[in-house]
Amino acid sequence: MLGVLEAVAVRASHFLMEYFRAGRGVDVVSRKEDDVTREVDIAAETLIYKMLREAFKEGGVLYAEEGGIYRWGDERYIFVLDPLDGSLNYAVGVPFFAVSIAAGKHREGTLADLEYAVVAIPPTGDVYTAAPGVGARKNGKPLRRTPRSNIVFVAVSNSFPPKTCEVVRRLGLRGRSLGSSAAELAYTVEGIARGFLDLRGKLRLLDVAGALTIGKYVDGFRYVVMGDTKPHSKVSLVAGDVDFVNAATTD
């Protein structure tokens, strides 16, 4: 399964970079609460759905950003997809966004089902993967968490939640936001950042399911999801090393 997922993510990455360089797909199709859907979101999702359905003809359930839930065949597999995490970056010309796909045997319809994952970052060419028996990898090489900074990725919208500011100050960390939760969390799994912090209750699990699944295979990485673990849920999330997660989740 992992080989297929990686091939799909790489193909989608090439598609997105072709669109990005040409300035295509930025027009807004719809708005819902804090979410904006652009032409490129729909195009990338449609491309990936078609590839997954062709590769896994026996059946699957795809939880996706724009199309809701796609079902086919006997629904034996679950797929959780964000075809373009960081669409605002994409739209304004900032080359930092990601493709996230996670998968597994369809049982509960939650994060617990997910065993395989790919997070591709098209502008850098980096591809993070994970699978049973293989573990986590970056660009084909084993991925081991090597802490290297006091950075914490924090989610912002119009303001910082007070709890976020308090945690960052108390731990003496430096907050950063790059505009793609999937990529930021993959970097946190790797140890580029010490932690990832989103306490708004607005983070879509679709965005980070791939990186969280990869993190399951990496020693020293922990996370706490505050909310429902079904793919379309919006939650708060704390992730990183054990000390960071414990400190950030303690009142």
Automatic annotation (TrEMBL):
Protein name: Extragenic suppressor protein suhB-like protein
GO molecular function, a single term: inositol monophosphate 1-phosphatase activity
Pfam family, one: Inositol_P
Record has Cytoplasm as a keyword: no
Residues the entry annotates as binding Mg(2+): 65, 82, 84-85, 207
Source species, domain of life: Archaea
Magnesium found in the keyword field: yes
Known cofactor(s): Mg(2+)
Keywords recorded for this protein, A-Z: Magnesium, Metal-binding
Biological process per Gene Ontology, one example term: inositol metabolic process
